[in-house]
Every structure is written in structure tokens, then in C-alpha cells.
Amino acid sequence: RVKMSAEEILVCAVELGKDFCLYFDELECDALCKEKTLHRVLRNVNSQLLVVRPDLNVAAFEDVTDQEMQSGKGMHFSIHCYKTTTPLAGMPVAFSVQVEDKSYYMCCERECGEMIVRFKEGKVPKEIPGESNIIFFKKTFTSCCSKAFKFEYSMERGMFLAFEEEGCLRKLILKKLSKDEVDETMKMSL
């Protein structure tokens, strides 16, 4: 047993090869592997639902009637949870949504020097070998608010999913947050 950063790690050699190399079993790799999928709606602090409209290339929080919610077009999300070897960053998740007969996944892209949230047609992979523009770290919103969450973009620390008023829309965006700040536009419940 080797003691490393207050954790005990058990390493068992499986065999000594002809080339005098040790071969190990049950080592964890750094790849993210899909563990489970949750099916939820995403609500903002105003209890509005996130609705994806790929035809308009927009995702925004909207007031939704019960009848609209049952039809579920673009508002019932699959939240794909991945296993990780670095749990302190938060639970790695990816988002996808079904609109009509097509599946779309959420990703972030840089456009004109700004990070933009996009929904692209396709499926979320079962394994992600390295960094990915579809992964967000799910974290509790505050220590006293365990039922609400914020989602940090994995490729740019300090950037979180949030909403921004744009005319009559509350558009889904990525927003920079300083460490000590609490920003209600990032608060989401599942």
C-alpha cells in the first residue's frame, strides 16, 4: 500500500511478463465513461423551463403550460452522468434533448471571441477519452441549497450555464463567475 494525498491506493501486480515488465489489473483510466442517465426538465430561479428550439438555433427559459409540458417538445432533457477519477471538480454531465424525432446534444463553441452554447444534432458518446466541449461539472448551487445546482463548463473553469435577458427571452448562455460571487441566473433545479 502506498499513501498518497490522504488516500490509500491498493496496487496489485497481475503478472511479471517475459520482458520483465509488471502488468497491472483494475487501474482506472482518465477517460470519462457514461454511468447513468437521468431524465429531467431544467428550471431556472423563476421556475421557467429550458426549451430548445433547434430550428431557431436558440435555447431559452420559458413559461410553459401543463399541456405544452406534456407534449415535451425540446424540454425533456437526458442528463448523462459520467464516472470520473477527479470527483472534487463535480459530477461530469452532458445534456441531450429530443425534438420531434431527432436527438440534439449541448456543447460550447468559441465564436467571435465569445463562448456560445449550441445544440447540435447527434448523440452523446458513451466514453470520452479526454477533454470535451460537451462536459459540464454539476455542483450544488450553495452549501445551504442542496436541491439546486450550477453547471461549470469543463474546458473553461469559472464559466457556468446561466440565463441572460435578451428582449423577451431568457437565453441560455455561459457566464463568468468570480469565486465568492453567488449569481441567481446560474441557479437551476432538476
Number of strands: 17
- CATH fold annotation: Trefoil (Acidic Fibroblast Growth Factor, subunit A)
Oligomer: single chain
CATH class categorisation: Mainly Beta
Question: What is the level-2 CATH architecture name?
Answer: Trefoil
Organism: Sitta europaea (Eurasian nuthatch)
GO molecular function, one term: cytokine activity
Keywords: Cytokine, Cytoplasm, Secreted
Subcellular location: Cytoplasm; Secreted
Nutshell version of this structure?
With 190 residues, the protein is mainly beta. Helix content is 3%, strand content 54%.
Characteristic terms for this protein:
190 residues, mainly beta, Trefoil (Acidic Fibroblast Growth Factor, subunit A), nine-stranded antiparallel β-sheet, 1 helix, 54% strand, disordered N terminus
